[in-house]
Structure formats: structure tokens, C-alpha cells
Design brief:
The structure is a single chain. The chain is mainly α. It has a domain of 33 residues. Helix content is 51%, strand content 0%. It is built from four helices and no strands.
Length: 82
Amino acid sequence: MTHGTLPPRHTLSIKDAAVLEPFYRAQKVHDKPKTWRELRASGLKPIEWEKMDMKDICDKAGLLDKYEKMVKLRAKKTKIKL
């Protein structure tokens, strides 16, 4: 057995086979991916992406006040007017 290959399933215990099952599935031949047109035709809708920057992350984490202090401190150090 070379590095990166999986042993034959019949040589494994039930426990080892269960552990390695995701890797066997990952190495099987997959179908060609569907296009967006095909996905929409099957009823799927695109997900609108959400703008996410450091301010949004800090806001969701409840750290917006610390973020604003950091921005003011950085502006003072770099002499940027807010």
C-alpha cells in the first residue's frame, strides 16, 4: 500500500471501516457539477451574500465599543482625521 491509498474494505474491522468511510466516499468518482442554470431550474435560489468587515464582526461579538476605540487610536497614531 502506497502513501495516500486506502486499504481494501474487506481487510478492515468494522470500527476501522466506519472511521475510513468518509475517505472512501471522497475518493469515489463524482458526477459533473451542475451549472447555476440547472440548479435554479431544480428550484434552488442563490443566497445573497452579506457584507462582513471587521466592524460587523466586532458588532456581532458585542465588541463594537472596543472596535471604535481601536479605530480612534489608530487614526490618532497615523494622523488621519475621522
